[in-house]
Amino acid sequence: MKRVFDIGLALLLLLLLWPVILAIAIAILWRDGGPVFYVAERMKTPETPFNLIKFRTMSNVPADQNAGVTGGDKTDRITHVGKKLRRYRLDELPQLINVLRGDMSFVGPRPPLRQYTDAFSDLYSQVLRSRPGVTGLATLHFHRHEERLIADASTPEQTEQIYVTRCVPRKAVLDLIYQRHASVCFDITLLWETILKVLRR
């Protein structure tokens, strides 16, 4: 039922939101140039990668400078359009394609980078029993706190230290709580909470 729900909702949203998606793509090209999309490896299981698709929100840099999560050391690279997209989570609209492909669900743990599934293999072997999601319990109740924690980091090393010691374990707790109570009804509740949270911004 969860997979049927994901496919049906993704198709409906693509049908309704394609003008918005097109407008965002044009805005990125006009203001920041190409590429429009940012495609990066994420993990569906500890052993299985996939290509996560988002609208590009940061300036183009060599791949080695994109390693790890986005902390204070990277905020000056977020583009003008990217700031607005991130604020309302519109940069994640292309992930509807990931949902249709089966890489992701609408609700679940956020898909981690390979470096974290390698470093915390036991933890992610439990967390990624759930299909990664566009939103989830940890996204709703920890994401803004995570942003505040790593906003003051001035180097990639500081960002990494804060993320692995103060964010990964706490998010995993919430992801495992979701896993124990997962259902279509719970997914609908979390999606509605996500919509309300975005609208309040």
Task: Explain the overall architecture.
By secondary structure, the chain is mainly alpha-helical. 58% of the residues lie in helices and 10% in strands. It is built from eight helices and four strands, in the order αββααβααβααα. It has a two-stranded antiparallel ribbon. A two-stranded parallel ribbon has the order 3-4. α1 runs antiparallel to α3 and α6 runs antiparallel to α7. It is globular, with a radius of gyration of 16 Å. The two termini are 32 Å apart. The relative contact order is 0.15. The mean pLDDT is 91.
Major sheet: 2 strands, antiparallel
Overall spatial form: globular
How many helical stretches? 8
**DSSP summary, beta strand count:** 4
What is the CA-atom radius of gyration, in angstroms? 16 Å
What proportion strand?
A: 5-15%
Order of helices and strands: HEEHHEHHEHHH
N-to-C CA distance: 32 Å
| Average of per-residue pLDDT values | 91
**Strand order, sheet with most strands:** 1-2
Structural class: mainly alpha
Element layout with pairings:
Layout (H helix, E strand, L loop, with lengths): L1 H31 L4 E7 L5 E7 L24 H8 L7 H7 L3 E3 L6 H6 L1 H7 L5 E3 L1 H15 L4 H26 L2 H17 L1
Parallel strand pairs: 3-4
Antiparallel strand pairs: 1-2
Helix pairs in contact: 1-3, 5-7, 6-7
